[in-house]
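Quick start: what a row looks like.
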Amino acid sequence: MLNVLRHQDLDGVLATVVRYFGGVKLGASGLVRAYTGCVAQALAGATRVPVVSTKTLCCQIPYALEGLIRRRIEAAGGALLEVRHGAQVEFVFELTERAACDVVTGMDEAGRGQVVWHTA
């Protein structure tokens, strides 16, 4: 079973096979074939979904930068989780780890020191 998963280049996947004994003894090689076949058949019909690491960020900005920051988050494919309006605007958003570094740098440059970052 493990070899089937390894040959499919899968990571973070668990395979479990349950066999109810029906009176037929398959032997060691028969069990290996049966279990391997079950896992291969399950993988053939499975949809593969890539695992993407994300990062949650939180920043505080003046109202004048709100539109710019919203556009930057959207352009990077981020998800806006929360917006709070007070003396300043506070954004909580999620980005892929790859995009997070570039977005933070771009927002710092565009904000000219007015963007304050907090831990989310």
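That is the whole record. The mean pLDDT is 87. Helices lie at 2-7, 27-44, 66-75, 97-111.
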